[in-house]
Design a protein that fits this description.
By secondary structure, the chain is α+β, with helices and mostly antiparallel strands. The protein has 2 domains: 77 residues, Beta-grasp domain (Ubiquitin-like (UB roll), Roll), CATH 3.10.20.30; 69 residues, [2Fe-2S]-binding domain (DNA polymerase, domain 1). It contains 5 helices and 5 strands. The chain has a 5-stranded mixed sheet with strand order 2-1-5-3-4, covered by helices on one side. A hairpin with a 2-residue loop joins strand 3 and strand 4. The longest helix has 15 residues. It is globular, with a radius of gyration of 16 Å.
Length: 160
């Protein structure tokens, strides 16, 4: 089996590791780095449960090979909160607005929402629905997810 050494930064921590050439980024994160917040869903890029930020842009980690992140920076749901015991505004709003039920899809929705709010800090409801169209939920019906993102946007823009 062919392996390659990759060096990347995950949630602010540098990692250097030999990985099989065909190892998926989602498997690298979950199995090698034990960051299980990134979920395996459809493994075909349809559901978005595996969404992470790669150099600040949302990607579906089940569609990328680990070797493709060599020299790059990844943020998973575990690295989103500031580390001082508080939650990221998106995490907080998903809890407060009921944007999660079983929680399986939630990490992917939150990571996609980070990218959305970075590019559009004051989205409309339609903007949120369009921006999150690549993520699927089987529990909530999406209304609370959209409300969660809009609430987070409001909280993040408060005072600006």
């Amino acid at each position: 089996m062919s392996t390659h050494r990759i060096e990347c930064t995950v949630n602010g921590e540098p990692h250097s590791m030999e990985v099989p050439a065909r190892r998926l980024l989602s498997d690298f994160l979950r199995d090698d780095l034990h960051l299980t917040g990134t979920k395996r869903g459809c493994e075909t890029g349809i559901c978005g449960a595996c969404s992470v930020l790669l150099d600040g842009e949302v990607v579906k980690s089940c569609l990328m090979l680990a070797v493709q992140v060599n020299g790059r920076e990844i943020t998973t749901i575990e690295g989103l909160a500031p580390g001082d015991g508080t939650l990221h505004p998106l995490q907080q709003s998903f809890m407060q607005c009921g944007g999660l039920q079983c929680g399986y899809c939630t990490p992917g929705f939150i990571m996609a929402s980070c990218d959305l709010l970075k590019n559009n800090p004051r989205p409309s409801s339609q903007d949120v629905r369009h921006g999150l169209a690549g993520n699927l939920c089987r529990c909530t019906g999406y209304t609370q997810i959209v409300e969660s993102v809009l609430q987070a946007a409001e909280n993040m823009n408060h005072g600006n």
